[in-house]
């Protein structure tokens, strides 16, 4: 019984941590809200896992607009498995981007790369902030 209570406690902590990571850094409109919405409108999808450092880096590029990304969580709450939605799409690594033309990119992408691939314009004045490769 004690082991069951510990396991439930661990699951609650993992879920709370994942929710914390999903909360946007700012409460107002983000700098890249329109860009993130355009990516969604153009059929781009970002597959990741809450425990993935490169996925966190990808979200960080979007600053306060990360919550607007067309994001699919692939990890089970315990971080040890993959959800069926990602298994069905054969997602093997994170981050993975899929696009409307069928292309799959299993890598962190800069905002400029995403803009070029989708045709989504970056808002004026943001291009210098995206030139650094991670």
Subunit arrangement of the protein: single chain
**Which fold name fills CATH's third level, the topology?**
Glutaredoxin
Low-confidence stretches: 125-134
Instruction: Provide the gyration radius in Å.
Output: 16 Å
Word description of this protein:
- The N and C termini lie far apart (46 Å).
- By secondary structure, the chain is an alpha+beta fold.
- The model is unreliable at 125-134 (pLDDT under 50).
- The chain contains five helices and four strands; from the N terminus they run H-H-E-H-E-H-E-E-H.
- It has one domain: Glutaredoxin, CATH 3.40.30.10.
Task: Provide the fold topology.
Elements lengths: L1 H21 L10 H9 L3 E4 L4 H9 L9 E3 L10 H5 L7 E3 L5 E2 L5 H8 L16
Parallel strand pairs: 1-2
Antiparallel strand pairs: 1-3, 3-4
Summarize the structure.
The chain is of the alpha+beta class. The protein is 39% helix and 9% strand. The protein contains five helices and four strands, in the order H-H-E-H-E-H-E-E-H.
Q: Which descriptors apply to this entry?
A:
134 residues, alpha+beta, Glutaredoxin, 4-stranded mixed sheet, 39% helix
